[in-house]
User: Fold SESN2 protein from Bucorvus abyssinicus.
Amino acid sequence: TTLLSPCRQIPQEGAESSLRQLLVEAFASAGRVDNITMVMGLHPQYLSSFWKTQSLLLRMDGPLPYHTRHYIAIMAAARHQCSYLVGLHREEFLQVGGNPAWLQGLHCAPQKLRNLSEINKLLAHRPWLVTKEHIEALLKTGEDSWSLAELVQALVLLTHYHSLASFVFGCGIHPKVDQDGGHGCRPPSPHSDSGSASDDSVGGSGGRDAVREVEVLMERMKLLQESQLEEEGVTQEEMATRFELEKSESLLVAPADTADPSLRSNVLCFVEDPEFGYKDFTRRGEQAPPTFRAQ
Assistant:
């Protein structure tokens, strides 16, 4: 929590230059600087690690085709009804050549992907219930079986996006009015269906556009930081009072996903057994459930 709390100072010149370079690279690679990147930009070192992880998972060499990776991200985010991430990766899925028919819902996806639904459900809500049998069932020889390498990457993607959905909710991240998932322009041409992603350069007109876009974003971030600096005179007691007021008021407002039925249907179509949710791991006086331990 401390790591991701708003900064109290505008970044110094060196840090600002480093952040600008990170945003340029993100823009040149993905064609946008999404709102998650903007929030994490308050902590450039954290953003750098996060962005490298995202690139490795989604754009670098691996056993899964690019469109499959994005569909798995959709499945994971939908499990927590995170419409922001679902919308973001629906667009990414199409940009890398995914079949639009799959976006009608999980029932339209290949059986191989649908077979991930059960372990996706457990990992999202009650991971202690995962057993070796769940893994064996997915690896079982057959037309829709997963290789071990594919399954490892799929499980990493699922758990990554379960966690990222919590970050999105915790920071109150929403798409912009145009629903494109963030600041950006038309993304670059999709990579091939599988294999290594080509290295994106920041040269040419695309690079110049990226730099201009990032300059605008940096200025917005400065204004945000300056407005925070004006709050320095606020006492801890006043801040606590404001927090309690905001918390009590927020409890009276239904979440956006619940308030908008069409939004919920666009997310829940990727979910099987939507009523399945978190349940306490163990209660006093009850025997703890068996767990699957992998060291």
